[in-house]
Amino acid sequence: MEPIPTMEWTVGSLKLLDQRVLPDREDYIECTDVEQLAEAIVTLAVRGAPAIGIAAAYGCVLAAMNASRNDYEADFHRRLGVLAGTRPTAVNLFHCIEIQKDMFSRDPSPEAAPDTLLSSAHRMFHEDLEASRRMGEFGADLLKEGSTVLTHCNAGGLATAGLGTALAVIYEGWNRGLIERVYADETRPLLQGARLTAWELCRAGIPVLVQPDSAAASLLLSGEVDAVIVGSDRVAANGDAANKIGTLSLALAAESAGVPFYVAAPVTTFDIGTATGAGIRIEQRGREELASLGGKTLIPADALVHNPAFDVTPAELITAIICEKGVLEPGRDSMASVL
Ligand code: MRU
User: Catalytic: which of 213, 226, 233, 311?
Assistant: First the structure.
């Protein structure tokens, strides 16, 4: 399986596969400054925890290139603040920005900083790609022959530097001849499952059935599914994991059906500084995402909306966390031991 070209650094700009228009079109956008990249992150042209983090790492290079020479350090940090203000839940964003701040502090000059930060961003890109390969291998060891797997949202190559987290496991399971079919929840309201996961799996020739999110519980109870595999935006120290809204319902249904529920996440998604899922800030998104579809109004003008982008699955509902260091029991001891 070839990595998906989610993002690419070209001289002085970050080129992003525009995920807002998939699967209709495979368009690219070019970001030459932090404001353009921040807009791309907020509107989900680039999305998924590891991809947001790595894109932001390249965004720090743009900040170092474009910061005013009169007030270089302060203007660089102001630009990083714009990136950090885009989306609150995926810890990868903050993790990657912190690494770049540290690299910048070694020689905060306009002559040195852009190159130093670019090498560091490339390193993060390659580490993420390698992490996804290893997650795929560890995760596929958990699958039995003829497996039907259910996934939610998009935790694929589009959400990372190229192979994915949950989908890396599915790709490797498919390579080993273990996967029969994949159910992809459509993932309301932005349809990352229908638009992006199905696009990726079709591209790889893996049989995929897109279903409404509301079909997942009865499918699980029917005994059709051998494993649920999802990604995560932030795993707290006790193993509670934030992921796309609707993940918690899946975990509850999987527990009730006796189906293993796996979270695949690189260690860059672990947040040992946050004790439990209660400390994870959940992004609330706008009314427009629920209020219309395909140009049609869906809800009355007077109705308010509740549109959280993520929920938190408690550690006790997670069978195991698959990371690039191995398969872990959710919780501080096992997670801290691999950091
Ligand atoms: O709002 P999104 O599309 O950025 O949400 C993405 C998810 O919830 C993914 O499952 C998560 O980031 C893990 S990606 C490997």
Answer: 233
Task: Check residue 132 and report its DSSP letter.
Answer: H
Beta strand pairing status for 326-328 and 320-323? antiparallel
Q: 146: left (phi > 0), else alpha (psi -120 to 50), else beta? A: left
- Is the full-model pTM beyond 0.85? yes
CB of 231 closer than 8 Å to CB of 49: yes
Centre of ligand 1 from the C-alpha of residue 305, in Å: 21
How many other C-beta atoms are found inside a 10 Å radius of the C-beta of residue 3? 15
Q: What is the DSSP letter of 196?
A: I
Which residue type, as a one-letter code, is found at position 91? V
Structure tokens at 304: 């308010």
Q: Give catalytic status of residue 233 as yes or no.
A: yes
Angle 110-100-88 from CA coordinates, rounded to 5°: 125
Q: Is 233 in the pocket of ligand 1 (CB under 6 A)?
A: yes
d(CA 302, CA 62): 42
Ligand 1 atom with minimal separation from the 265 CA: 15
CA 26, chain centre distance (Å): 19
| Average confidence (pLDDT) per 10 residues, the chain, 339 residues | 93 96 98 98 98 98 98 98 98 98 98 98 97 98 98 98 96 98 98 98 98 98 98 97 98 98 98 97 97 92 97 98 96 88
